[in-house]
């Protein structure tokens, strides 16, 4: 669920098992990780990484195309609300019984709704696997949506919406998506609005489950203490009761519109927060990795990035500044953000624009490229320090159609990027004259990007 306001039993359970995951996992090399494709007798497919060092299993899964973009007009926030309720009682267990069993068995079961997909994650100790799989199955096929749970989660979402009304980051993000996506479903808030959330009925929630959660749009990643032979029957047990076909609306492709302007949302605050965006690059584009390396050097590399060096280290204008490549199913764009004093936001944006222009005009140096490659390839195996990271990556590899051998090839893709590749892509991709920026606060002076 978009707002993390539920009780802490989920956090307790995850914290307990995460300690086990981190304690003994081998992080030596991506190439040492074997990914297996497992297909159950019922035809349910999953990608698996076995690791028997610890008695722990993680299952991540996604229902593709079932995210908040499918929320009907007038029912915004439906997918998000379901994500908060689907594990609040199922089968013959009410919320207290269901979640009490999870806590007693140190089982973590969590759901979330993004713009594109509806996702879930299960973490369990091996000895509790039968109980965990049963809870997962019930949550997907027999959620209760009892009145008490519905009104409790609704009140939490409404409280979160109230907080967002005055949260600069949330205000900026909502305004940005509305500005660049217009009437497209991506422009709408995942969490919904006060009016739509308060208007959602139990029948709406059940309709979402009936239409959206099915085997044909299901993607599964599994990591941990289980063999391929054991996993097949488990997949049928957990997911076999789902409908064969989903019934989802088609979300059209969209080209975000970037106007080259700075929009200010006035808020009486000593700081201003800004986010900005411009055109991006598709994940499957042949030049994606060149753009990926370029962005690392520009603003994705933390203290190693140009933006941090120029905005924070040299001038002390802001504590943090960043940029990243954003990819949705139907749109690609590049974003960045910074927060600083009202009297420094104008200068910060000016410096950032200079770096945007410099990247477009001059590109990068060979030393920058070598350092970026060294970090990006060397740090990649560190993503394998927990089973949850691995099972989540397996889902991402499938939803992005990266191939089952991606973990073996990923560093080769990075190493294949040349200086000429990056500088060509920078000249074509960077577009400082068509950047949309949103500033929330009381900025002083002239703002340009």
UniProtKB/TrEMBL annotation:
SUPFAM superfamilies the record matches: LuxS/MPP-like metallohydrolase
Domain of life: Bacteria
Pfam families reported in the protein's UniProt record: Peptidase_M16_C
MF terms in GO: metal ion binding
Domain Peptidase M16 C-terminal: 201-375
Protein name per the record: Peptidase M16
């Amino acid at each position: 669920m978009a707002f993390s306001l539920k009780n802490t039993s989920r956090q307790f359970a995850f914290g307990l098992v995460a300690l086990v995951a981190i304690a003994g996992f081998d992080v030596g090399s991506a190439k040492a990780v074997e990914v297996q494709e497992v297909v159950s007798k019922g035809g349910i497919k999953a990608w698996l990484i076995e690791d028997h060092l610890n008695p722990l299993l993680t299952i991540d899964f996604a229902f593709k195309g079932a995210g908040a973009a499918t929320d009907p007009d007038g029912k915004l926030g439906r997918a998000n609300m379901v994500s908060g309720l689907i594990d609040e009682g199922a089968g013959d267990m009410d919320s207290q019984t269901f979640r009490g069993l999870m806590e007693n068995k140190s089982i973590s079961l969590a759901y979330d709704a993004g713009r594109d997909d509806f996702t879930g994650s299960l973490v369990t100790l091996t000895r509790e696997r039968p109980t965990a799989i049963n809870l997962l199955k019930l949550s997907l096929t027999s959620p209760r949506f009892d009145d008490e749970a519905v009104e409790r989660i609704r009140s939490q979402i409404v409280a979160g919406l109230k907080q967002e009304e005055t949260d600069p980051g949330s205000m900026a993000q909502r305004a940005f998506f509305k500005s660049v996506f217009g009437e497209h479903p991506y422009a709408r808030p995942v969490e919904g609005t006060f009016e739509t959330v308060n208007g959602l009925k139990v029948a709406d929630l059940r309709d979402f489950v009936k239409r959206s959660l099915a085997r044909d749009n299901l993607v599964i990643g599994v990591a941990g203490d289980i063999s391929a032979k054991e996993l097949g029957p488990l997949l049928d047990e957990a997911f076999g009761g789902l409908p064969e076909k989903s019934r989802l609306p088609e979300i059209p492709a969209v080209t975000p519109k970037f106007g080259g302007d700075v929009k200010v949302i006035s808020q009486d605050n000593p700081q201003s927060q800004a986010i900005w965006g411009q055109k991006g690059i598709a994940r499957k584009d042949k030049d994606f990795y060149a753009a990926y390396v370029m962005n690392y050097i520009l603003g994705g590399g933390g203290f190693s990035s140009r933006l941090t060096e120029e905005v924070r280290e040299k001038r002390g204008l802001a504590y943090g500044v960043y940029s990243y490549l954003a990819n949705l199913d139907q749109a690609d764009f590049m974003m960045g953000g910074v927060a600083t004093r009202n009297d420094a936001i104008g200068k910060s944006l000016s410096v950032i624009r200079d770096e945007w222009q410099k990247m477009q005009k001059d590109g990068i140096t060979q030393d920058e490229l070598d350092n970026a490659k060294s970090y990006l390839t060397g740090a990649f195996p560190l993503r394998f320090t927990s089973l949850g990271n691995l099972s989540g990556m397996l889902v991402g590899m499938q939803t992005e159609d990266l191939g089952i051998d991606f973990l073996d090839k990923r560093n080769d893709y990075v190493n294949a990027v040349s200086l000429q590749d990056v500088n060509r892509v920078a000249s074509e991709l960077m577009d400082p004259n068509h950047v949309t920026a949103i500033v929330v606060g009381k900025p002083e002076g002239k703002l340009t990007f």
